[in-house]
Amino acid sequence: MDEIVNKVAQSSLMVFDLEDYYPDNHVVDLDISQWLLEGFILKESDFREQLKNNDWSQFEDKYVALYCSTDAILPAWSFALVSVYLAHHALKVIHGNKELAVIEWYQDILNKLDYTDYFQKPVILKGCSKKPVPNQVYTLAIQKLMKVAKSVMFGEACSAVPLFKQK
Question: Which residues contact 53 (CB under 8 A, 6 or more apart)?
């Protein structure tokens, strides 16, 4: 009987898995409607008082997506003021939804990574994820990998889709 050989494991193929960098609990959202009268009306003195008395420590070392879940019409300074309080605790504050904050997280991570292990090697940008990696993050990752890799495929080793090959 012939021995089964895992040719993928023996190849120089490198796997780049975005799930390895997924933020898990590092990205949170914050709805400012909780500090509005009936969720819609900004009464400045009450708003400022509630912000002053809020426990901001829960946002320590987090990326915070700041948004308003109601149709309240708010002045730009309201979000800026909340950001002032968050700035002492959060790593970053994003005005928008949680997905935007996750994309920002990945962009910062991808900009800091060392890609030398992928230099002139065939790379698979792993596509089957168990975590909700936004599609835009794959776009960011391929741009980084194209600068160093010999080729980049998307998916799994058994069914990879070619994306890029150096000329």
Answer: none
